[in-house]
Design a protein that fits this description.
Length: 575
């Protein structure tokens, strides 16, 4: 039974099992400064990673997960007393942030007006794990030999497409003069006006192109495009001012656009930056509000929630538990849930109390509802299904292979992803979970098996997981387990104090109003937006965002982040 592997991981089994619990989250190392609830800083991870390397806990990437999914994020970090997430990351505060593979592809597509879009890069994209929780983190965006070759090949292919016909080159630049082309295209590529020296140099490259490949504007333009796309001024987003100084308008434009739209700033935003429109808080706010109404912003928030809650793991669920069709439907339904919360102007609270869910033909039997006539359809759930975490996808992903529930996996998932508390571990080798005895519930077995594991299970992991015992390993509702009545009652110590709850619905209500949850979400959102770990110097930012998230929509929280000095001012402490 794969539930046994979750038991090993949550209690500190030494091997990174291919059937690890909670979608492959590894346990954190012992010896850190966590209290009995795992709050505070982490110690050395089980794999030997030093504390802080992975953001806060230093924990290594976990195994493949109960469902065969990829390893989880390391270093999720703890939460200090009072709902304050620990901010003990190790940011680099880089002045030059390399574009992610997807940012590169979208930027190339937009500045060259390519249709269809530019081909994806072939080099392996960064993956979250030991070093960072999100794939856009500065620590992951290095240029090695493979990436260098890939960028060069991608630039050549894009330049060939953009100059392959009169129609294509006309979309990039309507004229035929080298000076005007270099000036106009260079501004879009470098996200700022070119200097006089740069204009002269690239005009020389244009002339070289005609000399090498024959007379003709397109031949010169192709070489200029290749050269500019290979330039650090395109490949890196820069913040070159003095520490503590405001970013330039062009730097703000690029930072805001890559965060909220996933691509380079357009001509209108560059015009705004050039006119001083992004030099004020009001100007930045106006630009952010405009972006948030665009479909690209919804796509970026889908990426954020997808990474935060590991939606990519649905594609790796064991086919014996979920067909490819069900895997795809779970991922799509989950993404649509978070999309709706963002696009409809709802708040963080909706993640935990919304009765909205999305269902297709393969999910419908697990919910016990009639399937839609076609595609995926929005429905309203009964009261027991309020929140994302009581929907079938989350429950099935964090369920055992034999159809049994997995309270350890579910509890660890909430602890890591919702509360930013990474459980401490045991270092001894643990025996497998015993088989169920007649009329023994899974909860009773877990309680007996984890009784000697210390306070992490009794106070943190188990209570959260037991709330979901009203659902089996496939996410189907149930009221009996192995012939006995299920027991979903438990209590948990939040920043607001110890709270008892009767079932998953009641737990979700508590989470919706908890400052622990608000602080955790604020930390993760800020880390994604700033593309770096957070440190204690970011405390006021996280506190402001957490406070706002209690009542504001997600869009308003994002606007608050864009207005914050942490976003608009060059960080102190970097190179």
């Amino acid at each position: 039974m794969l539930l046994a592997s979750a038991w090993h991981l949550s209690c500190g089994g030494q091997s990174a099992s291919s059937s690890g619990g909670a979608g492959g989250r590894s346990a954190t190392g012992g010896g850190g400064g966590k209290d009995s609830l795992g709050r505070g800083t982490g110690g050395v991870g089980a794999g030997g990673a030093p504390a802080g390397v992975a953001g806060a806990g230093g924990g290594p990437v976990g195994g493949a997960g109960i469902s065969g999914g990829p390893g989880g994020n390391g270093g999720a970090g703890g939460t200090t007393a009072g709902g304050r997430p620990s901010l003990d990351g190790a940011p680099i505060y880089t002045r030059v942030q390399r574009l992610t593979n997807e940012q590169w592809r979208r930027a190339v597509t937009d500045i060259l007006r390519l249709d269809p879009p530019a081909d994806p890069l072939q080099a392996v994209a960064a993956t979250a794990g030991e070093l960072a929780a999100f794939t856009n983190n500065e620590k992951l965006l290095v240029v090695n030999a493979e990436a260098e070759s890939d960028f060069e090949a991608g630039s050549e292919a894009a330049a060939a497409r953009a100059t392959g016909s009169a129609e294509a080159i006309g979309r990039v630049y309507a004229g035929s003069d080298a000076a005007g082309f270099v000036r106009a295209f260079g501004r879009r590529a470098f996200r700022r006006p070119l200097t006089a020296d740069e204009e002269q140099r690239y005009q020389g490259i244009h002339a070289m192109g005609e000399s090498l490949y024959g007379p003709g504007f397109a031949n010169g333009a192709a070489l200029v495009i290749r050269a500019m796309l290979a330039s650090p001024a395109f490949l890196y987003r820069s913040e070159l001012g003095a520490a503590g100084a405001p970013l330039s308008g062009y730097e703000v434009a690029a930072k805001l656009s890559f965060w909220l739209l996933g691509t380079t700033p357009g001509d209108d935003l560059l015009d705004m930056a050039g006119a001083g429109g992004l030099d004020t808080v009001a100007g930045v706010e106006a630009a952010a509000r405009g972006m948030l109404e665009r479909p690209e912003a919804a796509a970026m928030m889908r990426d954020f929630h997808g990474q935060l809650y590991h939606l990519s793991r649905y594609a790796a669920v064991n086919p014996a538990r979920a067909s490819e069709g069900l895997q795809a439907e779970m991922a799509d339904a989950s993404a649509r849930f978070f999309d709706a919360i963002f696009t409809r102007g709802e708040s963080l609270r909706s993640i935990f109390v919304s009765s909205r869910f999305f269902v297709g033909p393969t999910l419908a039997p697990l919910y016990g509802v009639d399937p839609p006539r076609a595609g995926i359809e929005e429905r309203t759930a009964d009261v027991s299904r309020a929140s994302y975490f009581t929907q079938v996808p989350f429950l099935l992903l964090n369920g055992a292979s034999d159809g049994e529930s997995d309270p350890i996996a579910r509890g660890v998932a909430l602890s890591n992803d919702v509360l930013c508390i990474e459980p401490a571990t045991h270092t001894d080798v643990l025996p497998p979970l015993p088989a169920l005895m007649p009329l023994q519930t899974n909860r009773a077995r877990i309680e007996a098996a984890t009784a000697a594991c210390g306070p992490c299970h009794a106070a943190m992991i188990n209570p959260l997981g037991f709330a979901f015992e009203g659902f089996d390993g496939l996410g189907r509702a149930r009221d009996r387990d192995n012939g006995a009545a299920v027991d979903t009652r438990a209590s948990y110590t939040f920043a607001e104090g110890t709270q008892a709850f009767a079932d998953a619905r009641a737990l979700m209500t508590l989470l919706a109003d908890s400052s622990d949850v608000q602080g955790c979400y604020a930390k993760r959102l800020a880390s994604y937006a700033l593309q770096r770990d957070l440190a204690e110097t970011d405390r006021s930012l996280v506190t402001d965002l957490a406070t706002g998230s209690r009542a504001q929509s997600l869009k308003e929280v994002i606007v608050s982040l864009a207005r914050n000095p942490a976003f608009r001012i060059r960080a102190v402490g970097g190179p």
